[in-house]
Structures are given as C-alpha cells and as structure tokens.
Design a protein that fits this description.
It is built from 3 helices and 12 strands. By secondary structure, the chain is an alpha+beta fold. The strands form 3 sheets. Strands 1, 2, 4, 9, 10, 11 and 12 form a 7-stranded antiparallel β-sheet that branches. Strands 3-7-6 form a 3-stranded antiparallel β-sheet, with no helix packed on it. It has a two-stranded antiparallel ribbon with strand order 5-8.
Length: about 180
C-alpha cells in the first residue's frame, strides 16, 4: 500500500523509476544495460525527493552488503539511467563505451578521475575494473553537484568513514566510429 501512496504523489516518470527499482535486480556490471528493460520513448520528470527516498533504501542494502547498491531506472536509445548508493569506497573503473554523468542526490564523497588504474582487469563488456587509481585528480562532491566523466577515463568513488552518497547516473553510450 505504501508504494501506491508514493506513486500517487509522483510523476509518471518517477513512478516508473520506483517500479523499476522494485522489479529490477541490482546490476553487477553496471555499464551494461539490462536487456529485459523496454526502451523508453516518452519524456519523464523525476522528483529529487522520491529519488532520495529510493536512494535511502539502496543505502540500507549497501550497508548490509559490500558498501554499494544500485539499480537501473530506465533504458533509452543510446543511454540509460541508474540510482547508486555508497557507504564505502569502490575500486577503480573505466567504461570504454559509456560516458557517465553523476548527479549527487544526497550525501557527499570524492570522485577520483584520471591517472593510472591499479591492477586492471578487462571484462568482456568493455569495462575495466581495478583496485584503485594512482595519480588521479580528486573532485569533492556534495548534494546538487554534477560531474561528467567521458568514456575511457578511469575513475573511483571514495567515501571517508561515515560518509554516504546517493547518485543519479546517466550512462551515455559513445557513438560507433564512422568509416
């Protein structure tokens, strides 16, 4: 019943986001959109309070798990959206085929960008994961901040003890090179 009350107070797009959150499992390889989602073709309006509420539920999952939890919200032609929550620092990552736009919905943290990936392991999907970054630039992020990370740039989320962050992510697929 709580879901229906929440859905009544939100836009259609935000209601879809909540439904997607409840129906979509957490993605291990977050740069590969899940195939089962339908491509969205209508505009949507998101409510930051509803995203924060949804993010708080993800924070609980992150606390109970490995320090991170996320869900895909919607899949569009050429991009998709996610909500991610962190209670601990992550490892280094690089997306060969996707740029990231990270909008901080709540909390704070530091996003490291550039430098060299430590102990990189390439995954079949064009993703690279590592234990961290060396020589990266620190970007301190707070609620309301937005950072754009182009495809091919290593990055890492750092959470100091006691810090948490909820991020709305837009992952934009790089166009195929023209011949």
């Amino acid at each position: 019943m709580q879901l229906f009350s929440l859905a009544k107070s939100m836009s259609v797009g935000a209601s879809f986001a909540v439904a997607a959150f409840l129906l979509t499992p957490t993605q291990k390889d977050m740069a590969t959109p899940p195939a089962q989602l339908v491509i969205q073709t209508v505009p949507e309006v998101l409510n930051l309070d509803a995203l924060a509420q949804q993010g708080n539920a993800l924070l609980e999952k992150a606390r109970a798990g490995n320090g991170t939890a996320g869900t895909t919200l919607a899949n569009y032609k050429g991009h998709y959206t996610m909500l991610t929550a962190r209670t601990k620092s992550g490892g280094g990552e690089l997306h060969k085929h996707f740029s990231d736009f990270l909008f901080v919905v709540a909390g704070e943290g530091t996003e490291m960008t550039g430098g060299t990936m430590l102990n990189p392991k390439e995954l079949p999907s064009g993703e690279v994961r590592g234990t961290g970054l060396e020589g990266a630039t620190a970007h301190v992020l707070h609620k309301g901040d937005l950072i754009h990370i182009p495809a091919g740039i290593p990055h890492q989320s750092i959470e100091a003890p006691g810090q948490t962050i909820i991020i709305y992510v837009i992952k934009v697929q790089e166009p195929e090179p023209q011949s």
